[in-house]
From TrEMBL:
It comes from the Bacteria. It comes from Kribbella turkmenica. Residues 136-158 are annotated as: Disordered. InterPro entries: A-crystallin/Hsp20_dom, HSP20-like_chaperone, Small_HSP. Residues 26-138 form the SHSP domain. CDD domains: ACD_sHsps-like. Transmembrane segments: none annotated. This is Hsp20/alpha crystallin family protein. PANTHER family: HEAT-SHOCK PROTEIN 20 FAMILY MEMBER (PTHR11527).
Amino acid sequence: MLMRTDPFRELDRLAQQLTGATAPGTWSRPSPMPMDAYRSGDEYVVVFDLPGVTPDAIDLDVERNVLTVKAERRPAAVDEGVEMQVAERPLGVFSRQLFLGDTLDADRISASYENGVLTVKIPVAAQAKPRKISITGGEPGNRTVTGETVDDTRQLDA
């Protein structure tokens, strides 16, 4: 199971909307990168929108079941003497952290980046997948379940 970790995300977004755009040429704290997460079969897929970010400006790290995604959007090269009229695209470093539950296999995470979209695939750990347990027969009154003998005789009181 994935858990989102930024409880103040909506508050930050609202504050940015209320204060308006930053002054031209200034750097502000960028809004968090938007993401979607869903389960597909035996893996979780997390998709991050990172338009304008080059693949070499993206870092993925896993430490103690915490997946950290960092990306940097750098300013476009502008010729000298050019005066910026509107600067609404956030620049700087974006970062998101996801706590990965114990049921996920953090050692087998894979990622791809195409057309400004980072896709991270996190497989479900083998021990967390549903499995069938075989029941074998035994002598009457007892049954064996995966090597353990369970007494299922019942005594009726008259």
